[in-house]
Amino acid sequence: MRYAAGAMDLLVLGANVTCWGVIVVVWIAAAVREAGTRSTVRVRGSTEIGMVVLAVAAVAAILLVGPSILAPFTLEAPWVQMIGAGVLVGSTLFAIWARLALGPSWSIGPQVATDRGLRTDGPYAITRHPIYTGLLGMLLGSALLGGLGQWIVLVAAALVVTELKIRSEERLLLATFPDAYLAYRERVPRLIPGWPAPSARRRP
Question: What is the torsional sign of CA 120, 182, 158, 5?
Fold first, then answer.
């Protein structure tokens, strides 16, 4: 029994290290490759300082709350961890696809490369923010692999931070591509693939 538990712990650790490590490598490699091809015609938006505060608060909450209070929400069943592994791997592949599809238009803060136009194909035809979809899915997968518990706090905090960042980016995109982005927003869901877009939900 102890051997099985130890093997599962190694599987959880290996899956997390591999997937998150691949994301770091892809991001660094893409940044190096695109360093000389980034557009100089960019519109910059404002960065929400609340995102930084919430990120720090999330880490502090996990350390302070600890596993004891959230122990009732811990589910270390093998089937939960297998679902988590599937979500983690699938989300990793989706995030990489979205990052490579965006190419030199990617930036840390809210920016729009006006000369490259609005990206609406590939993963951007599935969700409007596929990189966030992938990264949030990875967090959820890692949380499931860890049995949820205290990791629920991290997932919830990441959702709040992502919501703030998306609002900043969408304000900038609407100001830069008013007609095109409005039409795009009406037909493509924000984060969840397959979730009905606003125009679809309004149909009788």
Answer: negative
159 token code pair: 């959702």
For residue 41, what pLDDT band results from cuts at 50, 70 and 90? Answer: very low
Pairwise CA distance, residues 135 & 74, whole Å: 22
pTM of the shown model: 0.81
Q: Which value, in Å, is the radius of gyration of the alpha carbons in the chain?
A: 19
Helix spans in the chain (H): 2-33, 49-69, 78-102, 130-145, 151-176, 178-187, 198-202
Q: What is the mean pLDDT of residues 163-180?
A: 87
Distance CA 99, CA 29 (A): 11
Integer Cα distance of 34 and 37 in angstroms? 5
Q: Which long-range contacts (CB under 8 A, 24 or more apart) does 17-23 make?
A: 19/88, 19/89, 19/92, 19/138, 19/141, 19/142, 20/138, 20/142, 22/92, 22/96, 23/92, 23/95, 23/96, 23/135, 23/138
Residue type, 41: V
Helix (H) or strand (E) holding 44: strand 42-44
Distance CA 27, CA 21 (A): 10
